[in-house]
Amino acid sequence: MILSDQHRELQRTVQNFVQLEINPNVAEWEKAGHFPIREIFQQLAGLGLLGISKSSDYGGLGLDFSYETVFLEELGGAHCGGVPLSISVQTSMCTPALANFGSQDLKEQFLIPAVRGEMVGAIAVSEPGAGSDVASIKTTAKSDGDDYVINGSKMWITNAPCADFFCTLVNTSEGKAHSNKSLIIIPAKTAGVRIGEKLDKLGMRSSETAPIFFDNVRVPKHFRIGDEGAGFLLQMLQFQEERLAGAALNLKGLENCVSTTIDYVRERHAFKAPLIDNQTIHFALAEMQTEVECLRSLTWRAVEAYVAGEDVTTLASMAKLKAGRLSRSIPDQCLQFWGGMGYIEETVINRAYRDSRLTAIGGGADEVMLGIICKLMGILPGKRKPTA
């Protein structure tokens, strides 16, 4: 993908925002366990960054997803994972289906305020017994005249404590698991919605995460996105953007692991020589940077195909898988080279080690990505690749 001058200008805008508005505050936000999400969202909205690929009819910039990817990649240069995660939930997880399949009324009521930074959104799919296994969700939405009555719970929901609405996957019938689900917008202040205690997490500490409980929550049927029963398909389509976003968000973070480690091992001496003079170390750093570039190429190839209107389920799953793998191996290798300093809470590499571990779990675990890839390759047990 060849970036245009417009891409480059967007790149500089996001770089400046990260350097001036996010990174100087990361240490404070990490200790607090939250960041001023509404203030940051308002600032992002003022730069047009919460609706880059959303239609101009709803306050967006009307650009294609390649521009969104530039934004996400540069956002990943933040010195923590939690703030970029919360922002990407708004732009790439809870609003794509709303923007692509929501009614005019839903877009006016929820999408426009989200793009303007006036509302915070969250995606509510995972449940205590159904994380990556989306088809197994238990939350129900029973028809009652012009309303749905919703009961159940959701788990590990980023932005839940501060969200104004949830894009929620529910069962609207007793039919087959892939055709009995619907996506419904549930306003957070609706009677019967309860947000649980914030979860104490290994990483992503500056983002707020909590369970949600629905007790006879009544919402109008026109809050449904798309047709009844189409929710699973719409969520799978939404996952394409989420997984591409997950890969893009990791690129700069992984590069930061490598670059900060280079700086550290240049200065750190052992046995009367800089650590970087050790061939084991500088060869490993070269290998890691090569892997990041491979991930970047795969991600951008998938984005280019997505912009062209192609089904990128395979490529997006591969990019997400590779991002998950590298987000475990690269921070771990780099932390080893930092030695005892890498084990200290305040260091950038320590935070990267904690935060990046989520990549291989959230948005579909590595094993789920492998299952999708295998299925599309025709190599699942008992399956054969179709012949011409």
TrEMBL record:
The EC category is oxidoreductase
Query: Keywords, A to Z?
Result: FAD, Flavoprotein, Oxidoreductase
Q: What is its EC number?
A: 1.-.-.-
Q: Does the keyword Transferase apply?
A: no
Q: Where is the Acyl-CoA dehydrogenase/oxidase C-terminal domain?
A: 229-375
Name any cofactors this protein relies on. FAD
Q: Name the Pfam families for this protein.
A: Acyl-CoA_dh_1 (PF00441), Acyl-CoA_dh_M (PF02770), Acyl-CoA_dh_N (PF02771)
All copies of the Acyl-CoA dehydrogenase/oxidase N-terminal domain together span 4-118
What are the GO MF terms of this UniProt record?
Answer: oxidoreductase activity
Asked whether the keyword Flavoprotein is assigned, the reply is: yes
- Which residues does the UniProt record annotate as the domain Acyl-CoA oxidase/dehydrogenase middle? 122-217
What PROSITE patterns does this protein's entry cite? ACYL_COA_DH_1, ACYL_COA_DH_2
Recorded family membership: Belongs to the acyl-CoA dehydrogenase family.
> Can you say what this protein is called?
Acyl-CoA dehydrogenase family protein
